[in-house]
Amino acid sequence: MTTRIFGSGIRRREDPRLITGRASYTDDIRLPGTVHAAILRSPYAHANITSIDTSAAACQPGVIAVYTGADIEGHLNPIPCAWHIPDSNLIMPDHPAIAKDKVRYVGDAVAVVVAENRYQAEDALEHIDVDYEPLDATINPKASTMDGAPQVHDDVPNNIAFKWTVAGGEIDEAFEKADVVVKDTITLQRLIPNAMEPRSAVAQYVAATGNLTLWATTQNPHIARFLSSVVTGVGEHKVRVIAPEVGGGFGSKIPYYADEAITSFCAMQLGVPVKWTETRSENYQATIHGRDHVEELEMAATNDGEILGLRTTVYAGLGGYLSTAAPGVPTILHGLMYSGAYHIPAVHGDIYGVFTNATPVDAYRGAGRPEATTLVERLVDLVAAETGIDPVEVRRRNLIEAFEENQDVSTGIVYDSGDYEAALDKAVDHIGYADLREKQAAMRAEGKHIGIGVCSYVEICGLGPSQVAGAVGFQGGLWESAIVRFHPTGKVHVMIGSSPHGQGEETTFAQILAGELGVPVDDVDVIHGDTDNTPMGWGTYGSRTTAVSGAAIALASRKIKDKATTLAAHLLEADAADIEYDDGKFFVKGSPDEHKTIQDIALMANVAWDMPEGMDPGLEASAFYDPPNFTYPFGTHIAVVELDTTTGQIELKKYVAVDDCGVQINPMIVEGQVHGGVVQGTGPVLWEGAVYDDDGQLLTGSLLDYAMPRADNFPDIEVLSNTTASPHHPLGVKGIGEAGTIASTAAVYNAAMDVLRPLGVNSVDMPLTPTKVWQAINQAQNGG
Amino acid sequence: MYASQTEYQRAGSVQEAVALLAGNEDAKVLAGGHSLIPLMKLRLASPSLLVDIGHVDELNCGISCNDGTISISSLTTHAEIASSDIVKRDSPMLAEAAGMVGDPAVRNRGTIGGNLAHSDPASDLPTVLTALGASINITGPGGSRSECVSGFIQGLMENNLGSDEIITSIDVCAKQANQGMAYAKLSHPASRYAVVGAAASVTIEGGTVTAASVAVGGVESAPTVGSSVAACLVGNAPTDAALDEAAAAICNDIGDDVLSDIFATEDYRKAMAVVYTRRALGCAVECAG
How far is CA B210 from the centre of its chain? Predict the structure, then answer.
């Protein structure tokens, strides 16, 4: 049966075109007469621009125009930051699309050349003569707040863009009455998102109509339209944004970038289509990075391992400018999750958002939550070590008990539903935790070293209630809408405002339709990505697409079912109250053989030959869904690593993930999301990280130096799940896009620290590369 | 990938290629392209002329073995070497190392000649070929010459290949019955180049090491020849203790200019040179037995 398909692991319909190279991306858009832009980027992390001469570049073969920061004045408004977190004294310095007087990171745009082809544009860049007066750079987020640190923006003292505090409970009292206080400082280093497709933009401006069309690598075309309008001054009704196939984003394609504004500006000036596509090296410099936290941590507990309080000071690097959502990531999406899966009666976190002379930082898969989960879970392990109680037992003693609805935590948010201990139990049972600990001890006696790391997490996703969005300063809503339209043949279009780009929702959303209305899944096409033919929506990020867009589709489908029921009653000459529905068929109670299929009804509604009095023709519904709360997926992951003490190499040997993301629409896709997430979250523990030198030069400037995790670094990832439905969601779903990333950093980090602790090593900054681990072991053995 | 403008000529013969190179000092040879093209796309190399030797039949004769010498044409790809029955039988360490170069795409395009001409200190093949005492056959305007690998590579991406010379083939001695060889590598997690790569060959007769050859890559700007290691081994029984001692002797062969980068410090590289030399020796002895 093709119709009983909600909840089954059918194959992703997106995959054949994606994996055979037949998908069409922004760079594949080829409009007649297109010219090509290349952007000159600052080679300095921090410098005054004393002069700029473009005359030689303008004379190069094929060059059509050269623009600098002076040329965009009066044409392009500054690139906006769209998350104005409250109660934080947030300072938002102007971010010009092209720097005019000062550059603030290596990669800051300084000029743009438009030429007949990209090679000519690149050649001409070499003929732009810029005089820079180099300034000292500042890179480390904490050091950047110190007196005397180089000032990235003159109007931001000590580079502090904001100080935001999360507080709940009596924190001082918690620490005063604690038997045990554990402390640590950890770094969640800068990461480069590395979407497979670099960013690209094609802009076309038709002066005759005043219409600007922007094809762009965006996760949220409607936000891009909104911000594009703000920056270019073209009315929102005259801007069309199209996200064709988008080759991954991981958050890096949420922001509205200077490059998109520059491309639009060139198209508007020149009256011909302009294309810009970044190279991978450019992507490393000009596309947002993630994380960049220095976290100073302490946790108060009793001798029995009962957690009393959590206190943090976090320095969150923001880079040279505030990217679109940057202030919300280390605050709302981070500090509010400090209670983790536990009763923690008191929390207090001071979070500093800090400008540095590096690429801007914004949401990157997990966005704030891996940074929170890692610190909570690290501290829980430290409490275990300090009290001598097993880490699993400490977790068990502090986990919030199973609840079906609404659990308050001390950070002030309300978890929707959870059974945290069930997930812990499943992971512990599956991996044979007690035996594993025994094996670990036995192996250690033989000189072999394994480490076991546990992470019990809760995350916040399904963003989110729009009223909350407003209250926390997000300059938009967080609802979604969907239109479900049946055609005369019974085939269906579903139009959504969110914009899947690899997550598989073209498949899962068809499954929702199949589940709600019994339509064969192959009869449903999901339309997304074009602001001119999709309803308003706020985009795909924060594990929200299935949770929010999916709910809108379910609600629209239910409206259709109501109309279909009425029409079926009319056609069957029965009372609507007597109509039953089963798997795509409407019939009079007791007479299932004389039924009308949903396809029959679609045809009759569309031809409208015989409609009930007052019923509109057509079979179409739209629905809006503004969630009443966030969703809170959870689970427990356990990692096992092995250390080679002679080389310092740490290898991941075993990984068990138990996730509870509520009701699963497609378990295969859930599993795939967990796999990808676990890999992405493990990378920064063992290999991955952006490294700048003191001058602000990006030393990991290419894939030769920046270590992405690879398939051969991993054992089989064993994925298990539980199902605790979200109580407030029409389908009971929560979201799974980021859970793997959120849990795995903490699980693998704890495993690595577990293997190092008996060797006297208690602190190694991520990534735990062989050199660092080897040095730490040597240092510990030589008496520290 | 927006390289500067460059001329392109496809050579039909070695002679023609050499003539093209001789006529343009700024020309570069294009073989598999896996070292040159990445540099060009970053505009770190901007040759005015590319001389494509990819279609020169004389350079693409594959792999043969005559009278105890394996001859490998310079256009032979890493994948071909890794899967060659001749190499697997007669120089298993070379096959193994060729199979560790880059990823399948690199191995399918990258050539042994191009690899040597690039002389990257972190590359696997120069280390292995140094330990194997391989010789490189080179043709230039003045005729042909032959050079041992350790003499050929002179520093960080520096060698004595003239700008108008072409590597035509590489000769490697086939393994003896009582000879064992192994390559052990600590890979960089991003590039998969050797942070440290140790190649060892050991011949054992009657329980005594009669010949040994060791080279370590990634530590200095050119492969480190482990002559102290070899000297330590020859004439002794290959016991664990003897191998430990011999491996430690690599430190005597490492000069003062040890490579260092954000991934691995000098100290770490030196320490790993010992560890990986020991590992390579252990495997080589096992294979010889």
Answer: 24
